[in-house]
Amino acid sequence: MRETVGEKIFRIIVLAGLTVFVAVPLYVMVTTSLKPLGDVQAGFSWIPSRLTITPFIEMWSTVPLAKYFMNSLIVTTVATLFSVGVATLAAYAVSRWRFRGRGPFMTTVLSTQMFPGVLFLLPLYLIFVNIDATFGVPLVGTRIGLIITYLTFSLPFAIWMLVGYFDGIPRELDQAGKVDGASNLTILLRIILPAARPGIVAVAIYAFMTAWGEVLFASVLTTEETRTLAVGLRQYATQTNVYWNQVLAASLAVSIPVVVGFLMMQKNFVAGLTAGAVK
Amino acid sequence: MTSLTAPEGTATPPKRPDRPTPRRPRHHLFPYLIIAPAVLLELLIHIIPMATGFWMSFIELTKFFIRRWTEAPFSGLENYRIAVDLNTPVGQELLNSFVVTLAFTALVVGLSWGLGMAAAVALQRPFAGRGIFRTLFLIPYALPLYAAVITWNFMLQRDTGAVNHVLVDQLGLLDGAPFWLIGDNAFISVVVVAIWRMWPFAFLMFMAGLQSIPGELYEASAVDGASPMRQWRSVTLPMLAPVNQTLLLVMFLWVFNDFNTPYVLFGTAQPPAGDLISFHIYNASFLSWDFGVGSAMSVLLLLFLLVVSLVYLYFTQWKKEKNNA
Questions:
Q1: I need a labelling partner for B161 at 20 to 30 A (CA). Which of A4, B2, B116, B177 fits?
Q2: Where does the record place the ABC transmembrane type-1 domain (chain B) (predicted)?
Q3: Residue B198 sits in which domain range?
Q4: What is the spatial distance between Cα A94 and Cα B1, in angstroms, rounded to a whole number?
Q5: Is residue A15 part of a domain?
Q6: What pLDDT is attached to residue A137?
């Protein structure tokens, strides 16, 4: 099928327009992070007067970036691991058994996705405060509270996506395992998980991205000691002098791991969406 | 696979069997066992807080009662009355925030839909460099939200930002450099930033959807002499209907609930023109420490979203059934 002239013009206009729209902020982010502070404060210029990596060095001492980075890394990694584990078990149950409450479980899990974070925030904050007061389990201001919260946030999408993946794995494989005397857990670990690896990877990336970028709960549930990047990066701007080159250097540095991870796995992600939403 | 029809009471695990039969009850218990962690977490983080939030909206939960909330006096519908009383600043600001959010949602969802669709269609045919565009377009979605919004915040600075540099210095479109993060312009800013973040998601979903459209459909319609525009309307759009149905609802809910974009863009000093509703409720609760009124606003927001979602699902499903009939 030949492409018409009209289609070609449409394609060029759309791609050129969107490329400018997407690329300009990315360009500003990268070049500003390589500019000396004097350049940034003197007014905007597209071409830096000179390139310097000092913002990438100084950003560590202007605010305790390393501490925020570690907090984010710990909270996000632990939340991701548990989220994938919990979602895998739940998706296995939903995909392989017709148990009582299966339908309501899926409906409830999916509908929680709909509701505004701010709706959970106030009560959750109060519940955490009161659990602390009653049972002495510190959930406000600690990493544990944030981990539990984040891991639950990625559960609905993770379960939904994994059920789609598991449903696509033929049950004959389970049966063959059963005949060989394998337990349910062995079947999950040895048969289902290897076959669903792209789905697991996609879910892990989604959980990581969700926790890494979350702002609202981090701003309320953390203290100076447990502050994550999402909140910590704002500190560059609360100083009397805004170190824009360092802010953007730090933003760039904390973005690279997630962006690279996502772009490497985008095929899995699209495949997972196709398995779930599109059908 | 074993189907579970036996009543729950029989599910006591027996001693390790010498006979083969007692294996069955273990199957009954197993799915509940492995789904339990997910259920517990959902209860702790979503379900119980939601129920608590509902209850909180009926009590006088000011700063004084935060640590002794069981003693907070019941106040009936008082919190709701305060929230929607249009004769007071609280009610007027909530109404303003609701209107701003409606306009924001319509613009962001509509334009993100259009851009996502245009990009997906433009990249439908294979050509050299297609992968590069696809990767580039997905970056705004992959970036952590705060990193993206901080960059925009810098670009929108009055004196040192790229936006005024282009509009005033380079193109000369405006006489004086305007503020973008305070005043009425704040609305334009938050809309543009939200679209920048949101449209790649629409693009991603449409791309996934387009992959499942068989090429023969286009060939057949081309033989019939259909123009590209006609093909889009008669082949692409109907085939994307299932994607569209999910996408529009999900985008509506996300955009309407968006807290992070205004929070990172404006800080806690929100301009009235950019006072989106989640952000408004947050400020109303945490700046005044009146959680009762904040909860009442949350419940009202939830009711609104629920009604819109149900109406939407009712009409889309109804249309689908009518088409099938």
A1: B116
A2: 98-312
A3: 89-289
A4: 13
A5: no
A6: 81
Please state the rounded mean pLDDT for residues B132-149: 92
DSSP state at residue A191: I
Q: Are B152 and B265 in contact (CB under 8 A)?
A: yes
Residue B118 is nearest to which of A14, A96, A219, comparing CB atoms? Answer: A14
Whether residue B49 is predicted with pLDDT greater than 50 in this model: the reply is: yes
Tell me if A25 is assigned to some domain.
no
In angstroms, what separates the C-alpha of A260 from chain B's closest C-alpha?
9
Binary contact (A229, B218; C-beta < 8 A): no
Structurally, chain A folds into a number of domains equal to 1
Q: How large is the average pLDDT for residues B222-246?
A: 84
The distance of B181 to chain A (nearest Cα, Å) reads 14
| Domain-located, residue B38 | no
Tell me the chain A residues in contact with residue B46 when contact means C-beta distances shorter than 8 Å: 112, 115, 120, 152
Could you report the per-residue pLDDT of A209-230, keeping only the tens digit for each?
Answer: 889 989 888 988 888 888 999 8
Domain count, chain B: 1
- The answer to whether residue B81 is domain-embedded is no
* pLDDT tens digit sequence for A5-48: 888 899 999 999 999 999 999 999 999 999 888 888 888 888 88
Q: pTM for the full model?
A: 0.86
* Residue B6 at interface with chain A, using a CB cutoff of 8 Å: no
pLDDT at A265: 81
Burial A136-172 (b: 16+ CB within 10 A, else e): eeebbbbbbbbbbbbbbbbbbbbbbbbbbbbeebeee
How confident is the model at residue B15, as a pLDDT?
46
Cβ contact A123–B164 (<8 Å): no
Specify if B186 maps to a domain. Answer: yes
Q: How does DSSP classify residue B66?
A: G
Chain B CB contacts of A29 under 8 Å are 147, 151
For residue A82, pLDDT over 90 is answered with yes
Full domain range(s) for residue A148: 63-232
In a domain, B26, yes or no: no
